[in-house]
Amino acid sequence: MAITTTGDTIGGHALTEEYAPLGGKYDELLSADGTVRAQWEAYLREFHKLSADDLVRGRGQAARLIEENGVTYNVYGDPQGVNRPWALDLVPHILSSPDWTAIEAGLKQRAVLLNLILSDLYGAQTLVKERRIPPEFIFANPAFLRPCHGLKAPDDSYLQFYAADMTRGAGGDWSVISDRTQAPSGAGYALENRIVLSRVFPNLIHDCRVQRLASFFERFRERLRFLAPHNRENPNIVLLTPGPFNETYFEHSYLARYLGFTLVEGEDLTVRDNSVFLKTLEGLERVDVILRRLDDHFCDPLEFHSESTIGVVGLLQATHSGNVAVANTLGSGIIEAPALRTLLPDLCRVLLGEELKLPSLNTWWCANPEHLAYVKEHIGELHIESAFPTRRAESVSVPELQ
Fold first, then answer.
1. Is 276 exposed, middle or buried, given 0-12, 13-18 or 19+ CB atoms closer than 10 A?
2. Are 118 and 335 contacting, i.e. CB atoms less than 8 angstroms apart?
C-alpha cells in the first residue's frame, strides 16, 4: 500500500488515487463500509503531516541505515548476489489490540501443544499407540531422527522458540500456513525494522503506542540461561550459525551481538568427554547452551547427515548426557511436517482439553481415505506439497502441472 499527501481522501486521510480494496479480500486499511480501521487512525494522522520531500528523505535515510548496518537477506540464486539488501516497507502492518490478543493466545496454545506432541514422539509415543497419530507420520518421515529418541529436554521444554507463517482469510480470520520449530528466523529482522522506522519517522512510532520488543528478547535470554545444566548464574551461551553464506546470516550475527552471545560456527566447537567446548586462544571453554540456527540434519555429522561440514561431531551424545542444552531441541523439525496440520484439532482436544484457537490452513492428507476422496473431487482447486517436505520444498498448484 502506498500513501501520499495528495490524492483522494478515504475516511478523512489522503491516499493515492489508485488505492482501492480488492473485491472478496480482507482489506487491512478499510472496513467493509469504506472507513479507515481504528488502528490506522493515529498513524495516518501523523503520516498526513509528511510532505513528499519528507517521504523521499525518509526512504533514503532508511536505505542508508540498512546499508550501514549491513542488513541483508541472502536469496540463493538472486542476481544481486549473497549480500542482497533487506527490503523494508516504510508503511508497517498495523494490527489492532483485539487482533493481536487473539493471535497471541492462539500462538501460545499452539506452542504448548506442539511441545507436548514433540515430547511424546521422542518419548513414550502414546499418541501413536492410541492411533491419534498414524505410525507412518513417524516411520515414513525423514524428519523423525531415531537417534534423538529418549532425548530429555530441560524442564520438558523442547521448543524454546517457536514461529509461524500466518495468513488472513477473506472474513478477517487468521490461520497458520506453516509451523517453524527447528531454527525459526525473523525476530532479529523485526527488531531491526523497528529501530530503522523509529529513527526515520520517530513521531509515527511514538504516537501509535506500539508494543515494545525489548521485553521479548530479555525473557528469551533469561529462558536460555535457565536451560544451562551448569553454571546458571553465568552460563556460556553460543549462537551456532551455518556461516556467512546462509540467507539469514545477518540475523545470526545481529542477535548474537544484541543478546550478548558468542557467534560460532561448527568448527569453533568440539566435544570432549561428552561435553561441548568453545575453542579459544586461551584454551577450551565449556559451553552450557547452544542456540542453533542449523536444521536438524546438519547439527551432528556423526549421527545425522554424514557429509555435513557445518555441524559439531558428537553434539547429540553430549546432549543425551545432559552436559549441554540445545535450543530448539534436536529432532524438533518433525513438527514442521504439513501432514500434522490435519491432526492438530483432535490432538488439541486430547492433550489440552480445548479447541484449537488458531486453525491451520485447510489441509488434506491423502493417507486418510476421506481426505483422499475430497482431493480427488477438488484436485483442480488445490495446491500439492509433500506430507514430509525436504528443505526448501514448495507447494505446486495442479493447473501448473498441466
1. buried
2. yes
85-103 tens-digit pLDDT: 788 888 888 999 899 999 9
What ranges in 122-240 are assigned the alpha helix state H?
Answer: 126-129, 135-139, 187-200, 202-207, 214-227
Instruction: Please enumerate in sequence order all residues whose Cβ is within 8 A of that of 161, keeping only pairs 6 or more positions apart, or say none.
Output: 184, 187, 220, 327, 328
Going by pLDDT thresholds of 50, 70 and 90, the confidence category of residue 77 is low
DSSP assignment letter at 30: B
pLDDT at 391: 54
DSSP H/E element including 237: strand 237-240
Alpha-helical regions (H) of 340-383: 344-352, 369-377
Distances (CA, A) of 175 to 31, 359, 399: 20, 5, 24
Omega of the bond leading into 328 within 30 degrees of 0 (cis): yes
Grid cell in block for residue 378: 477438488
Look at residues 132, 223, 167 and name the one whose alpha carbon lies nearest to residue 360. Answer: 167
Cα 6-89-212 angle, rounded to 5 deg: 110
pLDDT tens figures, 204-234? 777 777 888 999 999 999 999 999 998 878 9
**Rounded-to-integer distance, Cα 154 and Cα 291, Å:** 14
Asked whether 128 and 140 are in contact (CB, 8 A), the reply is no
- Give per-residue pLDDT as tens, 229-250: 988 789 999 999 999 988 889 9
Average pLDDT over residues 116-141: 94
Helices (H), 130-213: 135-139, 187-200, 202-207
Given the DSSP bridges, would you call strands 383-384 and 396-397 parallel, antiparallel or unpaired? antiparallel
